[in-house]
Amino acid sequence: MNVTLRQLRAFTGVYRTRSITRAARELGITQSAASLLIQQLEVQLGVRLFDRSTRSVQPTPAADEAYQSAERMLSDALGLSRRMRDLAQARAGRVAFLASAGAASALLPPVLAKFRAGFPDIEIDMRDMAADDLVPRMMSTDAEFAIGSVEGELPEMTIETLTRGRLSAIGRRTADFAAQPSLTWDELAERPTIAMRRETRIRMQIDLALSAQGKRLTPTHEVALINTALAMTAQGLGLAILPATMLPADQFPTLIARPLVRPAITRPVSLLQRQGRSLSPAAQAFVATVRTVLAGRVS
Asked: HTH lysR-type domain spans which residues (predicted)?
């Protein structure tokens, strides 16, 4: 049995109005088309739904039994249609994504604020973590994408660079530090420093670049999280070695960044997605907001 929504609409219309003519007018079809839909439904259900005469149309007991079920089915179909339309137009839905702790702290708050203002009914599920955990976690979660410092090529993944940040010395806004347009790595070596641990990607990149020039980084302190480095720097324990994009000015108003040169090193902030997997309309809208907010932001 293959009952169609058009047949159910014709049936409920005739049941309510007790008239094929009025039901046809509500549906925007001809009287003969409405009558045919009722006949088809009766054949498929194997019962008579209406007793017809030249002057009236009366529901049968079978029609009385079927009416509430038909209304529920039409209501469910309408609700599904509206829900799918809302999802397609990003008026509803859910965005689940991963973000490195640095990106979540320094870059994504304005993105989240802008997205919330434009799409207030979309649920946001942001899972922040260490940058080096993004790739393995993408393999094992329902997150649609990830945002963080990822580069190179990865099997079954696409990587899009959203912005780049120069490796910088981040310190307190003192007169002498603020007066320096940049610092060399040799100058940095003369000061207390706070760097990421050796096993992190950012530290590996730094060590590789310095090694190529016969230099070596020997930090005073090593930490695993960017916010730990910034908090220690705010207490005057040393200069943090981080991309300038990872400094959230609102959270650390006393800190400033000065680019490190000789060599200059940059770190990307990237969008990571699974190959061959489409983003939901809600996720597409969020990614578009990320691109808009981060467009041209190079520090």
From this structure: 3-60
